[in-house]
Amino acid sequence: MSDRPPPQRDAIPLLTSSLFIFCFGFRTFDVVVIGAGIIGVTTARQLLQNHGDLKFAILEKEQEIASHQSGHNSGVIHSGIYYTPGSLKAKLCVRGAALLYEFCERKSIPHRRCGKLIVAVDQQEIPRLRALYERGLRNQVPGLAMIGPKQIKEKEPYCRGLMAVDSPNTGIVIYKYVAKSCLDEFWDYGGCLITDFEVAGIEMTRESPMGSEGMQYPVMIRSTKGEDVYCKYVVTCAGLFSDRLSQISGCSPEPRIVPFRGDYLMLKPEKRYLVKGNIYPVPDPRFPFLGVHFTPRFDGNVWLGPNAVLAFKREGYKLCDFSARDVADAVAYRGPSGVRAQALDRDGNLVDDFVFDSGTGTIASRILHVRNAPSPAATSSLAIAEMIADEAAKRFGL
Ligand SMILES: Cc1cc2nc3c(=O)[nH]c(=O)nc-3n(C[C@H](O)[C@H](O)[C@H](O)COP(=O)(O)OP(=O)(O)OC[C@H]3O[C@@H](n4cnc5c(N)ncnc54)[C@H](O)[C@@H]3O)c2cc1C
Fold first, then answer.
1. Whole-model pTM above 0.85?
2. Which residue positions does the secretion signal occupy (predicted)?
3. pLDDT tens, residue by residue, 69-80
4. Which of these, 220, 182, 216, 30, lies nearest to 106 by C-alpha position?
5. Is 62 in the pocket of ligand 1 (CB under 6 A)?
6. Are 67 and 196 in contact (CB under 8 A)?
7. 259 DSSP β-pair partners
8. Collapsing DSSP states into helix, strand and coil, what is residue 79?
9. What value does the mean pLDDT take over residues 302-310?
């Protein structure tokens, strides 16, 4: 499919909590999903698709969906090369990419299967590159090949390297449009989005809300403004705040979230011809990130990034400190930033795989937490949603 410009989807109306009360006149639901990033929205859509007879709501603290990680990322559709064979990341990325391409085709969401090269520029990197290739094969990534300098030049005329992994199934998309398209379907099936609702408390209540029968909706969710929503079950998909959401529901704050900011630079317009597809380095095994890479965007820009620095604020996108010394000649101006939610275990180790967790205490059987969903969670979102929906059906007996 196409690389035509994205449709004008920003015109999608935003629902506020007051509009929600006006539209629906009640505040009880079977299942509430907290967080309208790509994981929350795809999960809510999948749950509603599987259980059309139930009432669902998504609660989001911002005015708009996908305002944080899902709207501040590289926009790469990863193919699944890097991840430990058998891990959730490996399985869900490969399946997620396939589902995402299918979804984008069906919904006419602009995307491009522009491919990717992981390029070794130094002899010392070649064993690691080969190991990556083997890993990709074990993960059943489609179309992988090892290529030499001549083929690198054929694919990326301005790229020099000794050897590369060629991944033709890697692509680009704007994840905000994927999330908005999923939200459209969620609305079509009768789901409800409540924005401007920052969850401040989740607890079991002794009383049901006025007008509801008995104790049908025993979980009370309260906003920072004192509004209440009642439900039977909760799924939290709060990204950078997943540990805090867990904690306020009486569940464990571990693993904790550490925010890592990623900044991008953009190539000067007259230098954009240098890059055709995604170009990545061989990752440094000491770090959990994939390395600074070139990524083409739909507006014609080419981004270079993201770096990874500890952020001083979970949703802080401004750079306080910047050294111009390392800015290469071809790089024109600062691009956008994102903040990654990376989970850290009790011993201070970065948690590599996706983590989904039930609750503890009295609410345990009624709550499911997405605790760690870093990259490639946007790629994997439709597969993660399938998994969470199955798990929720089992645990909650939906
Ligand atoms: C710089 C960067 C580059 C990346 N590149 C890629 C890439 O190329 N490909 C890829 O697959 N992945 C990439 N990722 C990862 C991907 O963006 C994330 O894994 C994914 O977006 C996580 O989605 P999410 O829904 O879990 O989190 P988010 O998008 O952060 O959504 C969480 C939502 O919860 C809401 N929320 C939080 N607390 C509350 C509360 N108390 N009450 C109500 N709502 C609340 C937030 O407002 C937010 O909308 C990248 C991430 C970053 C930061």
1. yes
2. none
3. 999 999 999 999
4. 182
5. yes
6. no
7. 341
8. coil
9. 87
> In whole angstroms, what is the distance from residue 67 CA to residue 93 CA?
22
Residues 179-234 pLDDT 10s: 999 999 999 999 999 999 999 999 998 766 666 666 899 999 999 999 999 999 99
* Residue 32 near residue 142, CB atoms below 8 Å: no
CA–CA gap between residue 276 and residue 279 (Å, rounded): 9
For a ligand 1 pocket test, name from 234, 375, 379, 388 the mutation site with the most ligand atoms within 8 angstroms of its C-beta. Answer: 375
For the ranges 25-29, 130-134, 224-228, 277-281, which has the lowest average pLDDT? 25-29
| CATH class assigned to 114-169+257-344 | alpha beta
**Ligand 1 centre from 26 Cα, in Å?**
29
What CATH topology corresponds to 9-70+176-256+351-396? FAD/NAD(P)-binding domain (3.50.50)
- Nearest-atom index, ligand 1, CA of 340: 53
CA of 382 to the centre of ligand 1 (A): 14
Domain ranges of the chain: 9-70+176-256+351-396, 114-169+257-344
- pLDDT 10s digits, 158-176: 999 999 999 999 999 999 9
Distance from Cα 270 to the centre of ligand 1, integer Å: 32
Our mutation pick for probing the ligand 1 site, out of 69, 279, 372, counting the most ligand atoms within 8 A of Cβ, is 69
The CA 148 to ligand 1 mean position distance, Å, reads: 36
Q: Which of 45, 59, 73 should be mutated for ligand 1, with most atoms under 8 A from CB? A: 73
pLDDT of res. 214? 63
Please tell me if the CB atom of residue 67 comes closer than 6 angstroms to any atom of ligand 1. Answer: yes
Quote the tokens at residue 212. 């509801």
CA 214 / ligand 1 centre spacing (Å): 37
